[in-house]
Amino acid sequence: MKVLVCGGAGYIGSHLVWELAAIPGYEVVILDNLSMGHIECVPEGIAFEQADIRDKEALDQVFSKHTPEAVMHFCASASVGESMIDPLLYYENNVVGTVFLLQAMNKYNVKYFIFSSTAALFGTPEVIPIADDAPTKPINPYGDTKLAVEGILKWCEKAYGTKYVCLRYFNACGAHKSGDIGEDHDPETHLIPLVLQVALGRRPAIKIFGDDYKTKDGTCVRDYVHVTDLATAHIKALEYLVRENKSNQFNLGSGEGYSVKEVIEAAREVTGHPIPAVIESRRPGDPDVLIASSERAEKILGWEKKYNTVKEIVATAWKYHQKHPSGFDGKK
Questions:
Q1: Which of 232, 256, 284, 324 has the fewest CB atoms within 10 Å, measured from its CB?
Q2: How many angstroms separate the CA atoms of 231 and 12, rounded?
Q3: What is the pLDDT of residues 138-155, one digit of tens each?
């Protein structure tokens, strides 16, 4: 099966490519505009097309040239804060771009679509852990764009027979076991790489935004799922689509979560660095706990996580950051 991976040079997409390309029977083609991705993440021998999903002509050329049988979609703008400042950019890239991608799929009769969605579409949940059928009430444009796409997919199935799986999750983290690819954002906003930047001497301390939440140590508790485990879930979802020919959506979570202080302590143990922490005031809109349940994904998709502790996850991230202390391009 030939699979077009949109956003395949980005953080999550590249880990999916590395896993999928290693499985006999799959041929991978990457489409990425490299606005957030890195050409260094593209394995040797994998077809790469530098293009933007908002470019209809470029999409037509890619589909005509490569004739994929399935599409995996990772190339969304994904910063909650940025989406609040520039919501139209998010609707343009995440919704309009996806519409163009689906139109190309329909034109070239591609029926299988794996959508990298987000648990942000649940907003502030009433019940923890978040079940797959929890109410969807996004509280930011980013989450709303993902929910909009999920709605579009339902109508595409009715009209065109598109079969899809939406995978919803919070914090992708960690790095490939080789340390050759990992998380490299500019600017960086995610906790684990920020903590490790302290150990690398790139920042003096890690900021903790609030220590008076209703949690065991007063800091926010979040889901952390290893990026390779997420990649495996996307492959399992594609296998499910081909096998069952039935659309679905699944949450991918740890089921328990870790506090900010627990993540920092794990990083201290892994790196041997004291990693000073500074308590700052709360950020607006940060819920106490956000954890998703992955029971249905485990039962229906047969998904099994390989990385089950935050220390294991941080260790893989540290291996990557030691190999690339200034990021892929060496400028950070």
A1: 284
A2: 7
A3: 999 999 999 999 999 999
